[in-house]
Amino acid sequence: MAVLLKAEARTAGAGAISLRSVRKVYASSAGAVEAIADWTLEIAPGEFLAVVGPSGCGKTTLLNAIAGFDPITAGEIALDGTTIASAGYLAPPGADRVVVFQNGALFPWKNVVDNIAYGPIVQRRMSHEQALRAAHALLERVGLADVARAFPLKLSSGVQRRVEMLRALINDPKALLLDEPFRALDAISKSAMHEELLRLYESTQKTIFFITHDLDEAILLADRVVVSATRPARVKRVLHVDLPRPRSPLMTASREFLELRAQLTGVVHEEAEKALRRGERELA
Amino acid sequence: MAEPDSHSLRRRLRSSQVLLGAAGALAFVAAWYLLVRFEVWRFAKLPDPLSVVREWTARRPQYGVSLYTAAYYQDIWTSTVRVFCAFALATLLGVPTGIALGWSRSVREFLFPLLELIRPIPPLAWVPLAVLMLANQEAAMIFLTWIAAFFATVLNTMLGVTSIDPAYVRAAYCLGSRPQDVLRHVVVPAALPYVFTGLQIAMGVAWFSLVAGEMIAGQAGLGYMILSAYMDLQTTTIVIGMVTLGLVGFLSSALVRWLGERLTAWQFS
Amino acid sequence: MRLEGVLTAVRVSAARGTRLRTKRVESVRVLRGAAGIMGFLALWELGVLAHVPILAQIPAPLEVARAQWQLLHEARYYVDWLVSLERVSAGFLIAALVGIPLGLLMGWRAKFRYLTFPVFEILRPIPPLAWVPLSIVFWPTTESSIVFVIFLGAFFTVVLNTLAGVRAIDQRYVRAAISLGATPAIIFRRIILPGALPSIFTGLTVGMGITWSVLIAAEIIAGKSGLGYMTWEAYVAGAFPIIIAGMFSIGVAGYASSAVVRLVARYAMPWTKPF
């Protein structure tokens, strides 16, 4: 899919994301909860960044702030130098940073083509016919032409995720925000999705902010893996992945991969223990 | 002999289901017949099924109403027109109201308590007020039928909007939607299954209220037909009226269901 | 209301660069609700005073309040309440006592379901009030015929919801119980009954709503007493404010009886969220 996407892509600009001392506190019935303490990180244009950490550690909260869904309490988030979130300010969500959701959010009442064509149509970037033609062309190239008229619920979750990525990419965003997009998939379709995402990333070079629980997935896909500390979330460790590109799922057996994996497991394990102990304390 | 595969097994099962169902219905009719014929307790006062069928299909009915009389179709027509007018009004007013209530928190906060205050009043308690308010008989009947259908439509539509998965709304904004795009492309289609649940209930309560309205204050229609048959002690005609009501009620609900299934075909995987 | 969070966020973000709104206080919600109701009453009062076409025919809210106040001092008003409550309770309880076991049996035994379900499907679309004349003919007293029609109103809903509740029980629970050596009696008591309970109570709540509607019409058509009769009598006698006071009373009665069903539901099913 990627080859042609690239050919068609308008140059959308760089896609550098800066997170500076981002902090998020929200009120709950039990009082103020600090979800994110102090997140600071520069994401380079075209970088594939994976964030791993225990559940409920504030990763999704961070993604929601970048996407423009939820405000932050303090600090600043900037996209290519323009502030998109700070204390008391939140830029509205937009097609420059499209989210692919955890459980998928294709509109079940629109067929595949209409889903993909949706963005360009509502943004008035293309006419209705143009958008449909572009959507058909995309599907054709990734070999999904025969599901063009199908409703999403009739498709496997794997195909649904592929379509959802096309729906994001047709807008030529600066960044893609992926919130555990492959969580619900079985191991085999997951591996196929990894291949597809790699191909796509390596040819479009979009900035990708990728949240996951799966350490193998994080190492295989990303340029850097950030381990987030558990509640409140902080950058605990940043790991550089120096595996060469183009990557393939076969690399998971390489020595470099296994070394990184061991290193990452150690760091994550510590955090998981902490989360577990806290869980026990809360239960007691 | 061929091995019974799961398909033919299912067919056999279904045929036994049909057979048992027919047996049940037959037993019901037979019991009714026997109870009336042998004058068990007060069943003697009721017409037996055979005489109902005979009267219903008679060219010259004893009590004036059968498949061959114009009066019969006039009553059906009157009631059906009333129900469909009320139903259309309930849809036209109820769906937008429900969407506004679900979509805007301010609208909900201002109007929902008022709605909740009026809703517990059963639709039929409006009968005297409707007759008083609307001098026109037709308008009073339609108002009564409308009020019941309206609440069912509003509440289900609102429920449909408030239970939309927020991910769809977020996805839509991500893709560059303006609020009016979200309303048109997300809120309305996502709420549609609930809207149709509401419309199905609305159709049921519309017939329910109309019959009562016609019995109490009507001068035509199936409800009136039943009541006037009662006044003239023509129990056979009462049963014909009841069966007819069941039939048209069933058909109109089936129509709404069919329409709903066609318009929300996407939800069946 | 999961959507709420999203909508608020969107509204906040739509106003680019503005300060985020502070968290809304609960009292605002109450005030707005009160404003909505007061506004409605004011419009109604003004509409009557200004002789707006349809509203001109009906009494103004203040007159209604006065009528309600007077009713509160009349013994007959309470008698009407009692009579209506008795009829609804009787019809509703019989519907529950007959309908729940029948629904359970239909859900539990497929053959019985196949046998009886079509009869239900034939009878169900007939509106309960269409039964009134036949019911008067059949039952020896008016009272019993009114109770019978009320019973019918709740009966079908109770049976069908109970049946749906049994059918919706996850078969894995039943299999788990069988593999643990449970007898059919134990499965029925420990799995089928509690599993169907939420649906049964949904049926009872909906059924309770229908009974009041049926009661009113039945009282108007056949009764000589009760809240429904009171409103009709007020109409016939030209005591119009009492019509609306009566509607209000019926609304209160209907609301209260639904609240009782919900209360029972909460005690019977401590494991579910209150509904």
Q: Could you please describe the fold and organization of this structure?
A:
The complex is a heterotrimer of chains A (284), B (269) and C (275). Chain A has eight helices and eleven strands. In chain A, a hairpin with a 2-residue loop joins strand 4 (74-79) and strand 5. Chain A has helices at 2-8, 59-67, 112-122, 128-141, 157-169, 187-204, 215-221, 255-283; strands at 17-28, 31-43, 48-52, 74-79, 82-86, 89-90, 97-100, 175-179, 207-212, 224-228, 233-240. An eleven-stranded mixed sheet of chain A has the order 6-5-4-1-2-11-10-3-9-8-7, with helices on both faces. Helix content of chain A is 38%, strand content 25%. The model of chain A is unreliable at 1-12 (pLDDT under 50). Chain A has 284 residues and is α/β, with parallel strands linked by helices. Chain A is globular. Chain A has a domain at 8-96 and 211-283: Rossmann fold (3-Layer(aba) Sandwich), CATH 3.40.50.300. By secondary structure, chain B is mainly α. Chain B has a single domain (70-267), classed as MetI-like (MetI-like fold). Chain B is built from ten helices and no strands. The radius of gyration of chain B is 24 Å and the shape is globular. Chain C has two domains: 20-57; 68-268, MetI-like fold (Orthogonal Bundle). In chain C, helix 4 (75-108) packs antiparallel against helix 9 (184-222), helix 8 (171-179) packs antiparallel against helix 9 and helix 9 runs antiparallel to helix 11. Chain C is 79% helix and 0% strand. The radius of gyration of chain C is 24 Å and the shape is globular. By secondary structure, chain C is mainly alpha-helical. Chain C has helices at 3-14, 26-49, 61-71, 75-108, 110-123, 132-138, 142-167, 171-179, 184-222, 227-237, 240-268.
